[in-house]
Structures are given as structure tokens and as C-alpha cells.
Amino acid sequence: MWSRLVWLGLRAPLGGRQGFTSKADPQGSGRITAQVIEHLERLALVDFGSCEAVARLEKAIAFADQLRAVDTDGVEPMESVLEDRCLYLRSDNVVEGNCADELLQNSHRVVEEYFVAPPGNISLPKLDEQEPFPHS
Amino acid sequence: QSGSSLRIVSAALKQGQITPTELCQKCLSLIKKTKFLNAYITVSEEVALKQAEESEKRYKNGQSLGDLDGIPVAVKDNFSTSGIETTCASNMLKGYIPPYNATVVQKLLDQGALLMGKTNLDEFAMGSGSTDGIFGPVKNPWSYSKQYREKRKQNPHNKNEDSDWLITGGSSGGSAAAVSAFTCYAALGSDTGGSTRNPAAHCGLVGFKPSYGLVSRHGLIPLVNSMDVPGILTRCVDDAAVVLGALAGPDPKDSTTVHDPINKPFMLPSLADVSKLCIGIPKEYLIPELSSEVRSLWSKAADLFESEGAKVLEVSLPHTSYSIVCYHVLCTTEVASNMARFDGLQYGHRCDINVSTEAMYAATRREGFNDVVRGRILSGNFFLLKENYENYFVKAQKVRRLIANDFVNAFNSGVDVLLTPTTLSEAVPYLEFIKEDNRTRSAQDDIFTQAVNMAGLPAVSIPVALSNQGLPIGLQFIGRAFCDQQLLTVAKWFEKQVQFPVIQLQELMDDCSAVLENEKSASVSLKQ
């Protein structure tokens, strides 16, 4: 993640907002604003890290926009190719488990039988409050 | 001759002409000799030798478990293997040792197969070149084949011998290279958009994608749950059928496996009457980007079926041009969901930040995933935003139905099997491949293969002939859902007609000639 100042600075030479409009859609409905970036980074807990990543996302959106050309009136969404079959249920009996030791072994931070997490309920800092990270 | 096949070596084992330990040693030696291919991430030498010892005991007591007992196999490194590192070629899982076996791995082990190691791939199976993992790219063994090298000597601009090595295709490139270089008799790959069929075509192998629901995905680290399947790479169709026989079937640990009684295809019947077959050729697959050599072979294949009396029809899959876009949306959205489990808490990489859970998750994921993976997660999350959900995700799901229906309609018109190219061209040099980014390449290379995953159909790539440059070209057969046996039967017939040449890796094979002699005499006695 980088500070908002750095990000705005990088945008400026491209002539403001025009530089980020997808070529496929001049109205720019796929335009990525700073708000969307922040929102996605928070939801995904993955950061963009660079302008190239933002540009890549815009290309991905422009690519996906081609779906609009398909007429899907009256077509139901397909979730699974096995939708016509019944889900097979197994009997509600415990047949395995009791492997806490094995599972705990794979974690980096464990106390007795607990996985240890840092404190929760602390939001990620907003873009302009952060230290700029080195780009990967 | 299909070279060193599973069937032949299995017979040799049963007749005592070679022991599992000797076979294991031979393959381990080849793995060492072909280390430069970078096909393996982990070589499980001790495990394999121990398994060989146990197999030997069984053969001595006349209690062999079947055709796979004592047979060296390799497994793509996105399948969990108990006690053996499973990395998905990612920093996120480097050092991760699963406490359980994937169901398909367990089934192979239960049949007595020898696990030689875990093979290299694109990070989290995202890619079509096997070039984007943390352990580096996989080299195509055909780069070092006599067939390719001889053609290149004719080129006056012949550069340094190794700088122009070719990619294997992907993402199951390590598995493909492992089988192609004779280090094992079969390998597991995975197939979400063509990841088993693509490298099979580039490495001159049979690459089989089963029907979705036929083979358990339990333990296959998921990419796209509604499309992923375990794939099988072998040197001939009969071998793929043997492996499929061991793997197919319902699994209580995978609720997406079907419970129909299935005729396990252990022994494929010889195709008695080709004239009863109807082959469909999808016209939308004839695109300008298709190389003239592949197009020519595709056409010759169609003619071959026709000359044997089969009906060959042009069919239409009208939504073909949208399938890559549809796949792109569905893939990134499912990936966004599946990758959410990697947060550093219970397994995998964990960063040093301890300020807050969210900061820890974010840094862990930044450190653990490469750009390709992160890019797909971000795209997927974008398409899943409330304001985008209907227009992108649900829209793509609707287009998926249209694509799946295209296939249903084609098969309903009387077609038994579709015949298409697998790839646009033969394998390209690595230096050329990396000129475009991963997403562009995947979009280009998956074009003939990914619609099959969206429809959940079985498909297989069969090596057909060598290109003008001496490199393999494969063609794809697509079958009806759960008609895997019929598909493989047609493929087997076709394989026999085309007689694809064995790769000539002469220097490597010299040391193994003694073992091959045993195999030859076994095959002679099979003919009785």
C-alpha cells in the first residue's frame, strides 16, 4: 500500500482521470476510484501495491464487460453442472477427528491448544494514514 | 509402440522380470539426471523406496494389489500428501506439511503405487506455462529431444543450446515433464481450464480430464470449486484408463462426487465399429490464431474418421467467443473466495506483524501470494461487490448455462464425440512466452480447453504428430458427461492410427537399456 499523496502524484502526468478510463468503454463505468481501491483492499485483504496492479484490474474489468453483449433474458444462472442431482448426505456419525495435535503443528503461533491471533476489531488504517510500503 | 507403458511394466513386475525396487531406483536415477527440467519440487526418495520394498513383498507372496502395484507415479504439488511438503509453488504454503492425503493420492497408494515426488506448477495452478511458481519454470523435455535438436541444427541461427528451451505448458507442467522424461509412468495433474490437457499436448502425452463429479477433489487445494477436477497424464490411453479405474468413484469426503454406479474402465474395449461413430467438429473453434500445422492435423484427423466410415459433422457452439470472458469472471470470483482461507493463522506462511488481525492477514497475504494470484483475488472481489454482483457474477453464471447448453445441443444432434485442437500451436520458447503477462497468455492458451470445464464434460488430449520443428501437437476429444469410457475408447482407437513417435532422449535412456530389455521380453510373452 502507498500513501494517497504518492498515488495522486502518479496519476497527474496522465492528464487526470482520462488516463484510467478503459478503452473498451469510454463512459468509464469500470473506472477505479481511490475509494474502490481502498474498499477492495479491505475486503480482499490484499493490496494493489502499484499502479500496474490498478491498470491490470481495469483491463480485467474491460475484458469482463464483453459479457454485456450476450442476451441472457430468461436464462437462469448456473451454479453447478450437477444441479439436476440430489446432494448425497452421509449419516450424522462422528467417524474421525481427535487430531488436535496434528493440526496445531502447522501453525506458527500456538499456546496450549489455541491458535493465537493478534487483537481484532482494529480496522486497517485508511490510505492517507499509512506509511508507504516498498513496492513488491 | 508406445514406449515404456504402465501395462507393459506391470506385466514385467508380475512375471518377476524386474522388481519394484529396481524400477524405483531406475526412476529415481532418471529424476536426478533430469533435475535441470525442474519438474519436481519434492522428491520423496525414502518414501518411494519403502513403498517399493512393501510392493516387492506383496509380489513375492503373489498378493499384488493390481496393475498399479509397484508403479512409480508423481503428483502435482497442489494435492495434499500426508507428511510430504505441499506448496502449490507458493510462498503461502512453503513448508506446509499436510496431515492427510488427498483422496486420489490415497487411492493410488492403496493400489501400491510408488510416490516419486511432488511436481512443479504455476503458483496455485494459475497459469498456462508452468512458469509462475516460486521454484522457477519447468522445462519441456522435448527441448532436449533428438527430434527437436536435429531440426534446429538445420537453422543457421542456432544459438546457445539451452537458452531457447521450451515451456511445458501449464499449469500441470511438472507432472507432464515428469512423465515425458520417463521418471514415472503416470502423474496427477489438475484441470480447471485446461491445465492437464495443455501441457499434455505440448509434451506429447495423453492428458485426461474426467467428468466433473467422477473423481474426488478432496485434498486438491481448490482453485474453482465448480470446475476443478484431478487430471491424469500418461504416455498412452490404456495407462490413463488404468489410473482412472483406480480413482473414479464416490467419496463421502467430497459431496460433489456422484453416486451413480459407473462402469469402471479398466480395460478399454477395442473400438469395433468406427462407422457407427459420429464425430462433431465445432466450427467456432476454427480461429485465425490457430497455427496452420495444428489446423492441418485437425483436418486430417477428421478425414481419418470419415475414411473409416464414421459420420463427421460440423456443429455449432455459438457462445464459444464468450467462453473465455465468462471463465475469467467465474474463475476470479471463486478464486477470491477460495484464497480467503490463507490468513496465516492455522497453516501456511505468517508475517511478523502483530498489531491487529487485519494487518497481519494483509501482510501475510502480500508476502505469500505472487502478483498473478493477488490480481485474480482483487478482480474477483470487484466482480462480487454488491453493485457489480448481478452484472458480472450472475451474468457470467447465466452465460455459463448457455455455454453448457451449446454442448448439450451438439451432443443431442447425434454427435458422440467432439474433435478439436488442444492448443493454438506447439510449445513455444520460454523467452517468447514471457513477453506477455500471465492473464493474457491464459486467455489465449485456454481457448479450446476451458469451455469443457464450464460444462463439466470429460475431455482428453491425444498426441498426434510432430510439427515441422519436431515438437508434439495434440488434438482434443470431448465426450458426453459421464461417458468417460466411451471417450477413452475412441481416443485409444485414434492413438493406434496416428502412432505418435516416442521421444528420443538418447543419453538418458542408455543407462536404462538393461531394464527396457526386461520390459520388451515381458511384452513378447504377453502376445503369446
UniProtKB/TrEMBL annotation, chain A:
Locations listed in the record = Mitochondrion
Q: Which Pfam families match?
A: GatC
Cite the SUPFAM superfamilies for this sequence.
Glu-tRNAGln amidotransferase C subunit
Picking any one GO molecular function of the record gives: ATP binding
Gene Ontology annotations of biological process type: glutaminyl-tRNAGln biosynthesis via transamidation; mitochondrial translation; regulation of translational fidelity
The keyword Nucleus appears for this protein: no
Known catalysed reaction(s)? L-glutamyl-tRNA(Gln) + L-glutamine + ATP + H2O = L-glutaminyl-tRNA(Gln) + L-glutamate + ADP + phosphate + H(+)
GO CC terms in record: glutamyl-tRNA(Gln) amidotransferase complex; mitochondrion
Judging by the UniProt lineage, the source's domain of life is Eukaryota
Top EC class per UniProt?
Answer: ligase
Instruction: Return the similarity comment.
Output: Belongs to the GatC family.
Summary of the function given for this chain in its UniProt record: Allows the formation of correctly charged Gln-tRNA(Gln) through the transamidation of misacylated Glu-tRNA(Gln) in the mitochondria. The reaction takes place in the presence of glutamine and ATP through an activated gamma-phospho-Glu-tRNA(Gln).
Subunit structure as annotated in this protein's UniProt entry? Subunit of the heterotrimeric GatCAB amidotransferase (AdT) complex, composed of A (QRSL1), B (GATB) and C (GATC) subunits.
| NCBIfam families for the chain | gatC
Q: Under what name is this protein listed?
A: Glutamyl-tRNA(Gln) amidotransferase subunit C, mitochondrial
Tell me the organism. Answer: Mandrillus leucophaeus (Drill)
UniProtKB/TrEMBL annotation, chain B:
Question: In what residue span(s) does the Amidase domain sit?
Answer: 25-488
One Pfam match, given by its short name, reads: Amidase
The entry's active site is: K76 (charge relay system), S171 (charge relay system), S195 (acyl-ester intermediate)
- The gene behind this protein is QRSL1
User: Its function?
Assistant: Allows the formation of correctly charged Gln-tRNA(Gln) through the transamidation of misacylated Glu-tRNA(Gln) in the mitochondria. The reaction takes place in the presence of glutamine and ATP through an activated gamma-phospho-Glu-tRNA(Gln).
Under what name is this protein listed? Answer: Glutamyl-tRNA(Gln) amidotransferase subunit A, mitochondrial
Q: What's in the GO CC field?
A: glutamyl-tRNA(Gln) amidotransferase complex; mitochondrion
Q: What is its EC number?
A: 6.3.5.7
Q: Which GO terms describe its biological process?
A: glutaminyl-tRNAGln biosynthesis via transamidation; mitochondrial translation
Q: What are the protein's UniProt keywords?
A: ATP-binding, Ligase, Mitochondrion, Nucleotide-binding, Protein biosynthesis
Q: Name one GO molecular function term.
A: glutaminyl-tRNA synthase (glutamine-hydrolyzing) activity
